[in-house]
Amino acid sequence: MPLAGAGFVAFAIYSGVVFVFATAPETISVGHAPIQPVPFSHRLHAGRLKMDCRYCHNTVDEAAQAAVPPTATCGNCHTPAGADGTAKYAAVLVSSPNLEPVHSSIATGESVDWQRVHDLPDFVYFDHSAHVTRGVSCVSCHGRVDTMDVVTQVEPLSMAFCLDCHRSPDAHIRPLDEVTNLAWQAPGSDTDPHAAALLGAEIRKENDIQPSTNCSTCHR
Hints:
Layout: H1 2-22, H2 25-28, H3 42-48, H4 53-56, H5 71-75, H6 100-108, H7 128-132, H8 139-142, H9 159-167, H10 195-206
């Protein structure tokens, strides 16, 4: 009996922890938009300047993690001004106060304290490369970030959300060369609301894409 009681208490605590993390704002709260130390605008960089997502998130098609870019990537365009007030290289906004955390990071080697917008619980395994290399665009989970000045969570990222996509993936599959083109629309979609799903079904059949709904796919 003592062991059974202890086991029940341990299970209750574990269930509570799982519940807390699974229902955290970073996991399910549509509208979650934390304040970042640098006011980075995706609308400007990915939208107006047409920068490919992979320039900053350079592991998204090769690894499970999409990767937060190192400050050196920011420094490619935003090298700080030197003692004489000029930059060593061609640079943008070298003296902007908004970029002070970036310039400080370049000088000290300390990382910028970026805040996560999308954060799955630790007991969930998600592989970005497995999705991106099969034609699932960033838009399916992250929305049109190229229209956002402040990145905001637009999908709940719950288990139900993921399973719905795995069970009916066709509308989320597009040609591989259009995965990071966030404004892409399937040909004919302006007149046929099923055009994206029909094209996705063709691509999925051609590449033998069979999303798994087995629990072990995400819970390992």
